[in-house]
Amino acid sequence: MVGTFRYGIEHECALVHSDGTFADFTNVGFDVLQGIVDALPEDPADYPDLRIGDQGIKRKRWYVEGYERFDEQGALLRCDPKGIEIRTRIHGSVADAVAALRADLERLAAVAAPLGLRVVAVGFNPVRSAYPIVPPLNAWERRHRLGSPEERTAHLHMVTYGPDLNLSCPEIAEPELVDVARKLTYYSPWLVPLSFSSPFRDGAAWGGLSARTSVRTGRRPAVMVFLAEDAPQVDADPSLTQVARIPAEVGRVEFKAFDSCPDPELYGELLSLLTGLVLDRTLPGRRTTPDAALHQHVAGAGLGDEQVHAGTGELLDASRAALADRPTDLSRLAALRGRWERRECPAVAMLARHATSGTFVG
User: Fold this and answer.
1) Cβ distance 297 to 311 under 8 Å?
2) pLDDT digits (tens, 9 = 90+) for 239-295
3) Which of 61, 199, 331, 352 ranks highest by number of CB atoms within 10 Å?
4) What rounded mean pLDDT belongs to the chain?
């Protein structure tokens, strides 16, 4: 019986200045954010769970998320920041992963506050919709930025904020992992509305609930599975599979399509939902790439659409049946079902707050 799951959370944090302005690549420098990261502790025990990366920026559980620019010889020139990402280690339970994220969010907030920066959660930059690549990519950058679907669209992430919710199970073979990725890609449009947190763009409510979903899905993956170097990869645009970059990534299923959530507990509920869907053997849908048109419809309508609401309910039912012998997951799933019954997502509360206070993020 499959049942030994491990979990990790990668959460992209947005920041707001003390005067209420949104902090992004236009008004906060890399050095300021790197100074925050430098003041946070480094724990050698985080490795080998976490990847450091080629430039050494990702040396801690916290790192500056941004867009790197290089010279003609491939030397790093600068990194335009969008915020700070937090990565948990790999944990043996959903609860431990959520607790680790919550603790590291508190540490980050405590270090950022004296610099006049507040940590917030939002799925899309509420005041600007695009990151301009200035100057245009040089020849070296074009060779390295155009080599994969994800590199070609890397600039999109500069205005979007979301989590990577990671789960792995050593008892699941690689061909089945690819099938799981296809299943979650197919059902992504009915999963993501539970997380929507981007009802603003270009300084106003745009009429929907997830600008992030509307802009990115179809061009960026909904799900990625990391396979061993010698395993067959799926040729797709956007990618469905990727060669694991460190041993700890082998066998990881990464759900990438949720919006950033203000309450880490919601991530825990969503991880339990995903666990049930991995274990499920009844759902027939499969896709290699996300259905962009359906995602864009859902981005506007959310759970207010009766068919979308019903589809999400069917996934909750399937997950609950598959989690019958996992009481802690069932408890989190029951809380998520309550959100679904209330047609609740963070964007609804954000719009209500904006109507009374004029603020975009809490």
Assistant:
1) no
2) 999 999 999 999 999 999 999 999 999 999 999 999 999 999 999 999 999 999 999
3) 199
4) 95
20's tokens:
């209420």
Are the CB atoms for 23 and 117 separated by under 8 Å?
yes
DSSP 86-144: EE---BSSHHHHHHHHHHHHHHHHHHHGGGTEEEE--SB-SS-S----SSPP-HHHHHH
DSSP per-residue codes, 224-266: EEEE-TTSPPP--SS-SEEE-SSGGGTTEEEE--SPP-S-HHH
Rounded to an integer, what distance in angstroms lies between the CA atom of residue 25 and that of residue 312? 36
* The two three-digit tokens of residue 15, written as one number: 């920041």
To the nearest 10°, the Cα dihedral for 142, 146, 150, 153?
Answer: 70
DSSP 154: G
CA 200/CA 214 separation, integer angstroms = 12
Structure tokens at 246: 């460190």
Question: Bridge-partner residues for 12, per DSSP?
Answer: 85
Cis preceding linkage at 48, omega within 30: yes
- As a whole number of Å, the end-to-end CA separation of the chain is 43
Question: CB–CB of 277/187 below 8 Å?
Answer: yes
SS3 per-residue string spanning 201-229: ECCEECCCCEHHHHHHECCECCEEEEECC
In this prediction, residue 95 carries a pLDDT of 98
Amino acid occupying residue 305 = D
Whole-number Å distance between alpha carbons of 294 and 360: 26
pLDDT, tens digit, for every residue of 175-215? 999 999 999 999 999 999 999 999 999 999 999 999 999 99
Spatial CA neighbour of 95 closest among 311, 238, 271: 271
- Chain position carrying tokens 């666990």: 275
Asked whether the CA dihedral 130, 245, 182, 236 is positive or negative, the reply is: positive
């598959």: which residue's tokens?
Answer: 322
